[in-house]
Amino acid sequence: MSELRDTAMNVKAWPFEEARRILKRYEKAPPEKGYVLFETGYGPSGLPHIGTFGEVLRTTMIRRAFEAISDIPTRLICFSDDLDGMRKVPGNVPQQDMLQEHLQKPLTSVPDPFGTHDSFGDHNNAMLRRFLDTFGFDYEFYSATEFYGSGQFDAILKRAVDKYDDIMAIMLKSLREERRQTYSIFLPIHPETGRVLYVPMKHVDRENYTITFDDEDGKEWTLPVTGGNVKLQWKPDFGARWAALEVDFEMYGKDHSTNTPIYDGICRKLGVKAPEHFTYELFLDDQGQKISKSSGNGISIDEWLSYASTESLSYFMFLKPKTAKRLYFDVIPKAMDEYHQQLRAYHGQDLKAQLNNPVWHIHAGDVPESKMVVPFSMLLNLASAAGAEDKDAMWGFIRRYAPDATPETHADLDQAAGFAVKYYEDFVKPTKTFRAPDAKERAAMEDLAARLRAFDGVADDETLQSLVFAVGKEHEFDPLRDWFKALYEVLLGQSQGPRFGGFIALYGVAETVTLIEAGLAGKMG
User: Fold this and answer.
1) What are phi and psi of 222, to 5 degrees?
2) How far apart are the first and last CA of the chain?
3) Greater model confidence, 53 or 518
């Protein structure tokens, strides 16, 4: 066994823990199908959101961890339930009235309100694939419409007819009494209206594999369960899809967790071993509400990528997947800086620490060097103090701080400088609130300005931080963080900020003196 594989079998990073569970399925013999299958599901009832991306990313991380500990080939299928009936019109799309006319039709039969694709389902599928492709995911896309219509699902649908009573028994246990009276695992698609019908079955024919039902007008119909004439209710569909594809692993949000015994039970009734699964906590918006693709709250993937790198988003997704997290614009700077901290640490770590480091999982072991010689939080404060309107203005300061850095040699820093200007303009600038210093703070700031005017040493982070620290101590700030808080509030218009010595080194000693003078004169607001 290689050193990598041997070490990976013992690290605690959650993707490796999940990978070892999957490997245990095949400790006696490899899969007959010749590969391990990972699946993620997508309900295209609304525009794909960042949580959908997170599901594919995290599954990919587990897949890569699995490949580090096993030679069994792997596949990843992203399955879109686009045959689902549109139960309500999403609030964040155009042509609401037009969509209202197509309620209960499969999403791939609903016209595209954006006018760019053959259907609303096709549009949302394309959106999903576009942003998955942005990140270079290795996946195969499956459409439920094609899966049902092409006959790929027919064998399992026939088996569902054979096991109809057993599967119904699993489902009926989970339903309220009034729902039980009309429930069926099969949803016929009306031959004339094209709507997905929620109607009770009059007869399920095990010889001919047909179902008989009355539509909403009382007309009786008999349809084959095969060929895309019928779809399964979503819970039975989940388990049946696992059986049809022989899925080995699927993760889903906490809101699905109570259904796990149902999904597993149906899969087993259909004669296939249920997959391993992983339940993650949900993402919340700035108000603490669950992010929903139909309401469009929270932050979209395109919005995140307007202000930070793809890797910073991947880093955020890696962290504590079983803990609910606010996913809003204010988490972006921290994610950017922590990602680069981990990147810098990686190359000095032993193999075990590297395999536990988030960046191994973000880059599938091919981890680049960080060229971020200035933290993102510092770039934000530079943009604030300098009033920078583009990254070229930022580079004027960066070159003085790091003479060897250029946009060409430090591409991640160049990209981050552009992000910082945009983030500052959109989120920091509108909320800046400057205040006047009190007498004690004024005296200390005047002292700091005087010492900086007289400063003729090497303007590095530590030397300048010690100087600022000494001023705070001599003016008897206790705790000392009150001194730094005063500097941030008076000079930068915010309650938190960077290590101030590092800020001075980047912004410039003379420029900082000018900034202090403006703050003391009340000219910052």
Assistant:
1) -125, 125
2) 64
3) 518
With bands split at pLDDT 50, 70 and 90, how would you rate the model's confidence at 1? low
116: three-class secondary structure by DSSP: coil
Residues with Cβ within 8 Å of 324's Cβ and at least 6 positions away in sequence, in order, are: 281, 282, 283, 284
Please give the CATH number for the structural domain made up of 439-520.
Answer: 1.10.10
Cβ neighbors of 133 (< 8 A, separation 6 or more) are none
Domain segments of the chain as ranges: 3-168+233-283, 376-431, 439-520
**Cβ-count burial 212-231 (b if 16+ within 10 Å, e if not):** ebebeeeeebebbbbebbbb
Q: Is 472 helix (H, G, I), strand (E, B) or coil?
A: helix
Question: What mean pLDDT do residues 193-216 have?
Answer: 97
Residue 277 bridge partners (DSSP)? 250
SS3 label, residue 438: coil
The predicted model scores a pTM of 0.91
Give the model confidence (pLDDT) of 472-506 as tens digits. Answer: 999 999 999 999 999 999 999 988 887 899 999 99
Question: In the CATH scheme, what is the homologous superfamily, with its name and number, of domain 3-168+233-283?
Answer: HUPs (3.40.50.620)
Q: Is the sign of the CA dihedral 371, 414, 416, 365 positive or negative? A: negative
pLDDT of residue 43 exceeding 90, the answer is no
DSSP string, 315-369: HHHHS-TTS-EE-SGGGHHHHHHHHHHHHHHHTTS-HHHHHHSHHHHHTTT-PPP
C-alpha distances (whole Å) from 327 to each of 308, 385, 481 are 14, 27, 28
Report the percent of the chain where pLDDT is more than 90.
81
